[in-house]
Every structure is written in C-alpha cells, then in structure tokens.
Design a protein that fits this description.
Number of helices of chain C: 14
Number of helices of chain B: 5
Distance between the termini of chain C: 32 Å
Largest interface: A-C, 48 and 43 residues
Oligomer: heterotrimer
CATH architecture of chain C: Up-down Bundle
Strand content of chain C: under 5%
Shape of chain B: elongated
Number of domains of chain C: 1
Strand content of chain B: under 5%
CATH class of chain C: Mainly Alpha
Structural class of chain C: mainly alpha
Number of strands of chain C: 0
Helix content of chain C: over 70%
Strand order of the largest sheet of chain B: 1-2
CATH superfamily of chain C: Formate dehydrogenase/DMSO reductase domain
Shape of chain C: globular
CATH topology of chain C: Formate dehydrogenase/DMSO reductase fold
Order of helices and strands of chain B: HHHEEHH
Helix content of chain B: 40-55%
Order of helices and strands of chain C: HHHHHHHHHHHHHH
Radius of gyration of chain C: 22 Å
Chains: A alpha+beta, B mainly alpha, C mainly alpha
Radius of gyration of chain B: 22 Å
Largest sheet of chain B: 2 strands, antiparallel
Distance between the termini of chain B: 71 Å
C-alpha cells in the first residue's frame, strides 16, 4: 500500500502546484484613468432610420467603414463569415410585419442589422468567463483576451449578431490593416459601438460614414440625455425594435418606412 | 529487488530522455545573452528598466484589464508621466521592431509571446 | 489494482492497440484543428455547435444513467445489482471523461479553458455544467475506488462511502438537468425553449445508459468468467423498457404542442427535422430511422416474451442506443439552429476530420472503459476462485 500512498501524494501535490497563481502587484504609485476627452454617455443607443437609408441603392458605407476600421476579415467560405454591421431583408429582420399582402419588393427591402446592445442581454447571461459583459453605459463589450471560444453567446443571441473566427482572420483582411488589433482564430467578435473611438471623443465609424455621404440614417447618442439627437428621435417618432417580446430591451431602434 | 536489470535500464532511458537538454548543453558553455536593440526614442521606458524587465507582463495585463474592461486609457506611471495604454501605440513607439527586441529574449527562453496573434507588430506612423 | 490492467490475453491487448491507434489518429487530427481553427469542421456562423457538443450531450446522459443501478443497490439494498454496480460506475467514469474531452476539442481557445475557473460566473449555466461534471467524475472515481478496494479485501466499505453515494444520486440527476438547462433557457432558440427538455433528457438517459450497460454486461459475460447476473440484466431490460416508453411519450408531447399550436417558430424546426426546410433535408432520413428504431425497440421491450429473449434484448438495446444517439445528438442540437435567428437555413454535416476527432474521443473513452472493466473482471474472477477453488468458477455460464 505504500506505493499507492506515494503516488496519491505526488498526484495531489501536482494538483496543488497547479493552483491559481497570484499575480504580483506592481510596485510604485502608478494608476490608470479614463481618457480626458472620452464621450460622456450614460446609455448609448442607436436609431436606424430606414426612411433615409440608402442601402436599397447599393450603399455599403457603414459596413465598409466598420469592417475596414476594425480589420474585419472578408472570409471566402460563407460558413465562416464575420460581420459586425450588414444588411438583411426586411422580411427576415421584422417577420412580424409581413402579411400575405406585403409586396415582394417591400419584403426584400434591405435593413441594417448589428448588435443591439440590449438592456437585458442573453449573451452576457450565458458567457462562462465574463468575456462579454454589459458596461455601465449600456454597451455590451467583448474581451478578446478572455474569450475561450465556446460560442455559447452566439447560441444565446436572438439576433444572430455575433461571429466566430473559424480560422485565422489575418490572411482574409482586405487591404492595409487599420490601427486596431485583429482577432485570432477561436474567439467571438461583434459590434462594440466603437468603444475605442468613444473613449477619445469620436462617434462610431458607421455613424460618421453615413453622415459623410450625406445620408444620416444612423443616429447615435445618449438615450438618457434628453438633449441628444437620439432622444429626439426616440421621443418623437414611431420606433420599433427587433423581437421585443423576448424581453431583451434592445437599444438599436428602427424607424421603418411608412 | 525484482527485475533490477529492467528497472535500472528503464531509469537510465528515462533520465537520458528527460535530461536531454542538459546533456546537449554540456560542454557547449553558457549561451550569449540576447542583445536587445536600443529604443529609438528615449530617454526611458514607462517604468524603470529593472521593473520592466521583471514585470512587463504584469504591466501589460494591468493595461489590458484597464483598457478593455474599465474603459480607461491613460496610464499615470510611478514617476507621474502619462502614457496611452497601448502595446502597439506606446511600447512600439520606442521599441519599434519587436523582432529585434521582444523576440530576442522570448526566443532565447522559449516563452511564446502570442500578443502578436492580434496586436500589430508595426506601428502606423502618425498614430 | 491498476496492475491488473497490465496483464491480459491477446484479445485484450489487441483491443487496447486498436483503440490506442484510433485515439492517436484523433489526436493528430485535433492538433491540425488547433492549428487551423474550427473551420476544419462543418460548423458555421449559423450553426456554431455540432458533432462535438451533440456527443457531449448524449454522453452526459450515459454518465447520469449510473444512478439507475446505484439507487436501487445502495439505497434500496436491491442485492441483484451488486455485481453490476461497479460496471455502471466505471461506465459513468468513461462517459464523463468523454464529455469533458468533447467539450475541450470544441473550444476555440482551449488554452484559456482555465478562465472558467479563474473567473467564476454563477449566472452562466455553462459554469455550473463544468463544476457538476467534474464533481461527478471525482465522486464516481472516489466511490468506485473505495467500494472496489473494500470488495477485493473482503471487508465492508468505509463508513464515509454511504453519504458520498447518497450525494452522487441527486448529483447524477443534476448533471443532466444542468446540461438540459444549457439549452432550455435560451429565448433565442424556440426549439429548445421547453420545460420538458430536462425530463426528455433524463428519460432518454435512463433508456440509453442502461441499454448500453446491458450490452456491456453481456459482452463482459462473453469474454470473461465474470457474470453480472441474469436477473440484473433482466431488470435492466425492464428499466430500459419503461424509460424508453416515457421518452417516446415525451417526444409525442412535444410534437403535439408544436403541431397543434401551429406556431411557425415552433413548427418549422420539426418540419426541418422530418421533412426538410427550403430544400435542406440532410437530417430527415436519420430522424425517420430514429423513429423506426424507437418503434422497434418499444415493441421488443414492452412485450415480456420478446424482452426475455436474449437476442431480441440485444437488438432492442442496440435500437434504443441508436435511436437516442441520433435523436439527442445531431437531431436535437443542430435543429436548434435551423432556421437561424434571421430565418436562414444553413445546414450542418460533420467533416471527415471532425468525425475522426470524435472517433478519437470515443476511443479514449473505450480505452478507459476497457482498462477499468479489465481490472473489475480480473479482481472478480480472482475473488471467485478464492471463494471456491475446487468448483468451477461460480460466475461461469454458458452463453446461449
């Protein structure tokens, strides 16, 4: 029995050594702070004004600006597609608005979709490592360092907003890399309302691109600030959200064509 | 002891395999320490060199958590200077070529630095 | 006792060799998947979970089913299950190890799996699934080791085993309930959003696990002198019969709710399963086969004359395992993703590499099972010989 006890001891000892190591604290009086010119916002939201959106004329300004600015790859295999903001048909985004008498042209109307940054996000609820979480300002954020690639969040998202890196994205990133990290294979990614830009006082790339072509269909701002352009739209116009019956309380709102 | 011959033979093979790096290194003398390229901008790093040598990974982890998880972007160092917490943006401003800096030590000790799987090894001019 | 696994006949080592080769083949392919990413599988943006997670789901049921033997034997002193209990516990160990391996090979960033422990997240069902699965493995290892060591020494097991066994019973139910909760709390997937998912999981577990145990017990009887007991196998057959009947009943309940309410979000999944959707119907033949196997197994199991026939019981057990493996595996998991939240149908079928990796995981599980069963058989044979060295081993039986 002595050999068995010895082996047990070695096994338990090895398990103990592998216990979580404590990170060494850095000496000195260093600290971290928010950037001084970060955009203040207590509840970020976006309104997609489909009355103005030019996607039906082939416009891709928002998608291109976002994907270029974040090094989103253009995968050849459609099964491995990665997309942060893109267009879908109205009938697929708002199936409840389709009647037997809806014209085919209306059913096929292109509608921009992206992460809804829900108030009550099911993806955050299921993530086993808090690699995705809800910030105090409402943004559902991604920590690409912590993600273990289990894809539970993709499974839980009712909007199909998330993408997984099935392969190394770098070979498929078109053009020159933007000043932003890429991701690596095995992690999930999605729209983050451009947190890296909000932090330095800029608005999301899609919003600026849409304004830049003179369209302005994407309105972004602080929904808790009554003076913001987003609030103005939310209070004055008939807005709708995707799948409201699920209780996720999305904060991407849509003004649909009358 | 039973099977003494087999046991000692097995032990010998085991020690030979596991100690292979030691036998390989014997008689070759100590390897030269890696030569790191001097920083293109000076005069000093975010924190003193000894601190960086010992704890740069802890510093980077601290920056990572602050930027990604707390939306903080400014690092106030122990000497009071402020820096943007960015691997490519700040570290590579001075240590411009990771191949001549980071890779030298990491290659020497065989510790994979997989930062570059995502973060970019070349700083964009003007960023 | 581990040294009992180091000696054996030619068939034993041949089996170990074959399983080892399959495991090695799986490993080589897994290393490629690590390098290239999960794109080497048939998974897609619309179908993020497939073969690996479906096998994990099926095997959690097999692992939980040990409770079907443990509960009668340890709590209700049903002595008939005495010789069988260790086989059930060892099957549970092999099954849980395979579950953990299937989860591991499915991870996009496996080296970060430790994050689940470093950053515990109680609001995530997956966190709890990891905890209860590992806990169940530890429980089964501890219980089977303590009881078997005691049996070999001819002494009663230590007193602390009893409460640990009592703990393992609700724990077994919990591992499969928590796994069902992975699916049944997701608003995004109406196909899984049903309270009956956990009961369905348990019913199919209590049918497929004991059915597998019947086949294994008969195999053990054929290749060794250890006989788990004629009555034990018969009783297992009865358990499988009732569990399979309940399971099929639950499926019918689901079909009724979906088809009678005629709500598209519910109906379309079943349409995809049995008829196909938008010209995509890769799963349909499999689902009909699963139904047919279920029907055949029910007839063979519910008619006592058929159930008592050894050959028919084997056929029924194979049919049960086959039917539920299809139903709970690809049938349940993939269908949750079809159609996607945006109404698209992206089909899924495993790639050759994916199947090879899965086969490798099964080979590892079979290896563990073979080794553990070899130990159990050898010890039991030795005990029988010690008990009656003159008479032929009491456990010897002619196989029909």
């Amino acid at each position: 029995m002595k050999r068995r006890s010895f082996l047990e001891l070695v096994g338990l000892g090895a398990a103990g050594v592998c216990a979580v190591p404590v990170a060494r604290a850095l000496g000195g009086a260093s600290r971290t702070e928010p950037a001084p010119d970060a955009l203040p916002g207590k509840r970020w939201a976006m309104v997609v004004d489909e009355r103005k959106c030019l996607t039906r004329d082939g416009c891709k300004a928002c998608t291109e600006a976002c994907h270029r600015g974040h090094n989103v790859p253009a995968m050849k295999d459609p099964r491995h597609e990665v997309k942060w903001i893109w267009k879908e048909q109205l009938a697929d985004v708002f199936p409840e608005r389709v009647t037997p008498y809806t014209p085919a042209a209306v059913k096929a109307l292109p509608t921009m979709v992206l992460c809804n940054h829900c108030d009550n996000p099911p993806c955050v609820r299921v993530c086993p490592t808090q690699a995705t979480w809800k910030r105090a300002d409402g943004i559902v954020m991604m920590d690409e360092h912590r993600c273990i690639g289990c894809r539970y969040c993709i499974t839980a998202c009712p909007y199909g907003a998330r993408s997984f890196n099935f392969e190394d994205p770098r070979p498929s990133i078109p053009g020159e890399l933007a000043d932003y990290p890429t991701r690596t294979r095995g992690v999930v990614e999605k729209c983050t309302f451009c947190t890296e830009r909000l932090a330095v006082g800029k608005r999301p790339l899609c919003v600026e691109a849409c304004e830049g072509i003179g369209c302005g269909a994407l309105v972004f701002g602080d929904a808790s600030d009554p003076g913001s352009p987003v609030s103005a739209l939310l209070r004055s116009t008939d807005v709708t959200r995707r799948k409201p019956e699920l209780g996720t309380s999305p904060h991407v709102f849509y003004v649909l064509r009358g | 002891m039973h099977d003494a011959g087999k046991i000692f033979l097995g032990l010998g093979v085991f020690v030979g395999l596991v100690g292979a790096p030691v036998w390989y290194g014997l008689g070759r003398g100590p390897g030269a320490p890696p030569e790191l390229e001097k920083a293109v901008e000076g005069p000093r790093c975010v924190e003193p060199t000894e601190v960086m040598r010992a704890s740069h990974m802890q510093l980077l982890d601290q920056w990572r958590t602050a930027v990604v998880r707390r939306a903080e972007h400014v690092y106030v160092a122990s000497d009071g200077r402020q820096h943007a917490m960015s691997l490519t943006g700040t570290c590579l401003r001075c240590h411009a070529d990771p191949a001549k800096f980071c890779d030298r030590c990491h290659g020497y000790v065989g510790v994979e630095a997989f930062c570059w799987d995502c973060h970019q090894r070349k700083r964009r001019s003007g960023s | 006792m581990l040294e009992k696994a180091l000696t054996g006949g030619r068939r034993y080592f041949a089996l170990l060799g074959v399983l080892g080769a399959l495991a090695a083949l799986g490993l080589v392919n897994y290393l490629h998947q690590l390098q290239a990413g999960l794109g080497v599988t048939g998974l897609s943006r619309d179908v993020p979970w497939g073969l690996y997670i479906s096998q994990f789901t099926f095997l959690v049921g097999v692992a939980a089913s040990a409770v079907m033997v443990v509960l009668p034997y340890y709590v209700h002193h049903y002595k008939v299950f005495g010789p069988l209990a260790i086989l059930g516990e060892f099957l549970a160990i092999a099954a849980v190890v395979m579950c953990l391996l299937f989860i591991f090979v499915d991870m996009g960033q496996p080296r970060r799996v430790v994050n689940v422990i470093l950053y515990p997240t109680p609001h995530s069902v997956m966190f709890w699934d990891m905890m209860v699965l590992n806990g169940y493995l530890v429980l089964n290892v501890v219980i089977s080791r303590a009881t078997f060591r005691a049996e070999r020494a001819g002494t009663p097991p230590p007193r602390w085993v009893k409460p640990v066994v009592y703990l393992s019973i609700p724990w077994a139910v919990s591992i499969h309930t928590v796994t069902a909760f992975l699916y049944s709390g997701l608003a995004a997937r109406p196909f899984w959003l049903t309270a009956i998912l956990a009961p369905r999981f348990l019913a199919s577990a209590f049918a497929s696990g004991p059915a597998l145990l019947i086949l294994l017990a008969l195999l053990v009887r054929r290749v060794s002198r250890f006989d788990p007991g004629e009555e034990a196998i018969r009783k297992l057959g009865e358990i499988v019969a009732y569990a399979m009947a309940v399971n099929v009943f639950f499926v019918a309940l689901e079909l009724f709710t979906a088809l009678y309410s005629d709500i598209p979000a519910h109906v379309e999944h079943f349409t995809y399963l049995y008829a196909g959707l938008h010209e995509h119907h890769v799963l349909a033949p499999w689902m009909w086969a699963s139904l047919a196997l279920a029907g055949v197994s029910l007839v063979l199991l519910l008619v006592p004359r058929f159930r008592r026939d050894r050959t028919l019981l084997v056929l029924a057990s194979v049919a049960v395992v086959g039917s539920l493996w299809i139903d709970k595996g690809l049938g349940m998991v993939v269908t949750g993703f079809v159609p996607s939240p945006l109404g698209h149908v992206t089909e899924y079928w495993p790639t050759a590499r994916e199947a090879t990796i899965a086969l490798g995981v099964y080979a590892v599980g079979a290896l563990i099972l073979t080794v553990l069963y070899k130990i159990a058989i050898t010890v039991r044979e030795e005990l029988a010989l010690d008990a009656a060295p003159e008479a032929p081993p009491a456990a010897a039986r002619k196989v029909a």
